[in-house]
């Protein structure tokens, strides 16, 4: 458990290792207030937790923190099962680890899912970008019109248009002339007008020369323009002369959205060009459309309505909207855009927003031009040089400050300053505690406990004053980075063990002073008088007494901060690392000492509240308090019967070696106080039911109930919920693990020294050992997890002596196949895993070897745990040789509801009890769903009443007393054990495998089909199944 806990602690610390705020935890207790959980969830979900309480002061606020973190985690990752808030606040390590595991696995799955979604989004975006790029580069547009639109406007059929940029500076109406189609299918004019032509098949234009666009107007060109007759077609230029290709309106839109970088010169030219492009882009009237009919001899020029460009992909032609739908080759296909009034309104708003954005961009560029132009005019050589030098110094300083070494120096400087100031304040507060509180309390009332505390405090002040003098010398020498601090502090760590005696006395002194202030009014008034002294600054004595306890963890945080911000090659790093290890070890030792002292005090407190006979709760110094709660005891422990389950409320107290049951009713919760403490503070209680853990079997009974069974009594306990029952069973299991683990290690050491083996059942080879499988100690179907693949496989477990044999199934055992694995339980420690995909799992592990099994349900799991611990105690080498540390053997029995109470107890009833412990023997071997009430001695199976009628008709050997050996439980009691041997040799599990091995698998009905069988169908199946009578002795 400690190794697994450390894994989670390291994982939490690794989450915050890259943060500026150093957040570290030393144990799972640091998570109980919920603040770390909130930061973990915020870190993994990238969201903020609302209503987070950074410094919770009571239990309610801690619960609120954990609930807030759980709510955000479930909102992000989905439902997290098995997480309970209150046990985490109480410091339950099992459920705290379970919550951390749930967050960890859910966040890792979320990261993988996000990566897949991002990868798919990137692929889709690249496809859209390629399609958009293809659409934006095409300048040819094909209008696909419907039949209705063609009939409405006969001049608008399927058309192809080419858009070219109209040259700037051209005024007046465009020239009206017809231009033949170019080889590329583009219609253009000398003025760069927009031309539309009807698609005419078989048009041969291969010999026509290309048309050049109009060149910019020069003064000479302007003069020549006056002589041009607009009614005559222009002379086409020679094809040898090169010309510029027209720029599409899509190019203009891209230039407007993705603005070019601002150049240093030519502000006016760039500004004019931008205004011209924006004006053309947002112009409502484009060029004329000329429709050419080449079938007529004389081409007639027909004017259509204006073409207007709405945005990048939408045009208005003859009052209708057309949208670019796709790109086919070098042409964009346009379809008519029919919009509802509401959608049309949104479309108009979007277009207006685009135009407004472009004008805003233009105005912003104009402002930038003015600023740059003013700077350019005011710039001089000296000013320029000074500015360049200043900028270079800023850049160099910025780059240097980004180096980790330089950043670390700043943090080291701040950390050393904080260490010095906090140490100075700490020593002064210790002196105040000694002079103004403890000294005066001793003068008021001479007490040995306070005197001893003063002596411990004087020793602490002496050592810390030495450290403070070293820190002040660093400050006076202007040693702001603390060079040499590591060596001084490492020498100081050798004296930190002096804190141990003070911490042992601190809790006793605090409790003693508090109790006296409550009982003695004069003593309480004296404390108030001392707290009013101006030197103590209105702080109580308790706030000063706790200071040395809190100081050691703060030293550890300071050293971690220094190590984090110091280069790996620094000469101080080695001493700082040694100091950190020393402080961390001392901190763990002090925390453990404090927890032990607090637990011992709690045990003594509970012992003072109980009235017991021949049992002293405080006599064992190794006894520890684990947990308390409230349950209902059902039935009478000494005369237990399942027919009389009278409920009585009890308070249950779990210790490391014993369980106490106190008759009491659960009190109402008062503030933040624990309800068990509320009950114990109300008076003294008699305790008669004392249950030793090491001689008691804890067996699940389904729902929220479980059994505590020992030789003298049987306790059936009902918890408030099923989850609370599981938590108590895990805690009891941990107590047994701690006790058994020491025997495992001692046994392993003894085997290593002597060379002896405890595998008593392995003394013979497997062929000879097969005879032992006819009488196993325990067996059932289960699951086994493959350590390499992590997959769970169905298996058949057989426990003989101290060895677990793992078979593929019961048929493998019947066919005398060797086991796939065998484990000696005396070499391993047994426990329930904290987190597992199977809820009823148990783990057998030792050092680096681990085997994980899972039973069918919790009841079968607890029976396996008891059986394995019996084998451990019986065959463990150290337990067998040691007379002082031998463990008592657990009880392997369970009250069963189908055995008659009036049956007299003898060896036969004990045999039936042991056989019915196997869960499969409680369900009929034939119908597989009814409870058993009868046995068939010849076929060695347990069956139900209806199936027993068909068994009577089978082939049987006649009993000596006459009749067929198909008997009820109450009839079996008069037979000797030798007659019942087949029940142990076969039983329901192996019996089914034995009788079904000769039947083809496709003829064996499933469990669901058997439940639907009629009485006649079931009788036929039983006759087919038991086709032969087995021999008297069956050997596997």
TrEMBL record:
The protein here is known as: Rho/RAC guanine nucleotide exchange factor, putative
Q: Please list the coiled coil stretches.
A: none
The segment(s) forming the Calponin-homology (CH) domain are 2-108
Q: Where is the composition biased (Basic and acidic residues)?
A: 214-223
Task: List the GO cellular component terms.
Answer: cytoplasm
The uppermost taxa in this organism's lineage are: Eukaryota, Amoebozoa, Evosea, Archamoebae, Mastigamoebida
- Taxonomic superkingdom: Eukaryota
Return the PROSITE patterns for the record: CH (PS50021), DH_2 (PS50010), IQ (PS50096), PH_DOMAIN (PS50003)
Q: Which InterPro entries match?
A: ARFGAP/RecO, ArfGAP_dom, ArfGAP_dom_sf, CH_dom, CH_dom_sf, DBL_dom_sf, DH_dom, FYVE_RhoGEF_PH
PH domain: from which residue to which, for each copy?
A: 777-873
Spell out the Pfam families in the cross-references: ArfGap (PF01412), CH (PF00307), RhoGEF (PF00621)
- The region called Disordered is annotated at 201-223
